[in-house]
């Protein structure tokens, strides 16, 4: 009899534990509303890459919308270019987030120490090696997406060097990359120093996305100050 009672008590404890650990679809929005930071942290633990991709896409697209807003003059009657923001969101999700997720993980694995020397090594690898390679890649992908969008608008998906202004457009942007890298170091070097020194690994992609949001908005505003146009962005 005692053995049966112990068996029933153990079953009840196991049932309660499974109920407490399970989350129904209705619990998800409630947990997000009650404690969004804890909900986000949980998603980083359970689905790290997907969470970072979604977050990066939202921040990248929102950053471009802010750029367009800051560069819009009072007499500018043009609507927001939602397609342009969508391109930034796509690149943020499928290019930026996966790339920096793998890269930061590699850096923290290869140089795991938190000494000043280790932080300096990670900073040099990130801004001295990764950034000069990644920025041209981002600019190239952005230019390709722009001309694909133009092709879709013209009922043609063909993208060749003979596409209208594709070669010259890409070349002009590539010529501006070295200057953009140098200007970017003024923002990214101190920001990445803080990140490598204090930000936990699972939050590093989110941190870099937030810095990128501010950087895009500022540089776009500074580049087009007084022009009343929203044709260019950070990567322009």
TrEMBL record:
Record keywords: Membrane, Transmembrane, Transmembrane helix
Q: Listed GO cellular component terms? A: membrane
| Organism superkingdom | Eukaryota
Protein's cellular compartments? Membrane
Q: What is its main location?
A: membrane
What membrane topology does the annotation report for this chain? Multi-pass membrane protein
The molecule here is called Uncharacterized protein
* Organism, scientific name: Cyclotella cryptica
């Amino acid at each position: 009899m005692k053995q049966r009672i112990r068996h029933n008590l153990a079953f009840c404890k196991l049932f309660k534990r499974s109920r407490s650990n399970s989350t129904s679809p209705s619990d998800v929005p409630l947990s997000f509303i009650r404690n969004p930071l804890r909900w986000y942290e949980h998603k980083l633990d359970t689905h790290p890459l997907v969470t970072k991709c979604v977050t990066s896409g939202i921040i990248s697209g929102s950053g471009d919308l802010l750029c367009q807003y800051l560069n819009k003059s009072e007499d500018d009657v043009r609507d927001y270019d939602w397609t342009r923001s969508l391109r930034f969101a796509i690149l943020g999700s499928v290019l930026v987030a996966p790339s920096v997720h793998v890269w930061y993980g590699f850096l923290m694995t290869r140089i795991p120490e938190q000494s000043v020397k280790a932080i300096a090594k990670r900073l040099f690898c990130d801004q001295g090696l990764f950034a000069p390679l990644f920025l041209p890649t981002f600019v190239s992908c952005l230019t390709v997406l722009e001309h694909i969008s133009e092709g879709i608008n013209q009922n043609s998906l063909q993208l060749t060097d003979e596409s209208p202004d594709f070669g010259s457009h890409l070349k002009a942007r590539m010529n501006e990359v070295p200057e953009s890298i140098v200007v970017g170091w003024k923002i990214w070097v101190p920001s990445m120093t803080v990140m490598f020194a204090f930000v936990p690994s699972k939050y590093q992609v989110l941190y870099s996305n937030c810095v990128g949001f501010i950087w895009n908005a500022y540089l776009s505003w500074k580049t087009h100050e007084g022009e009343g146009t929203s044709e260019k962005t950070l990567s322009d």
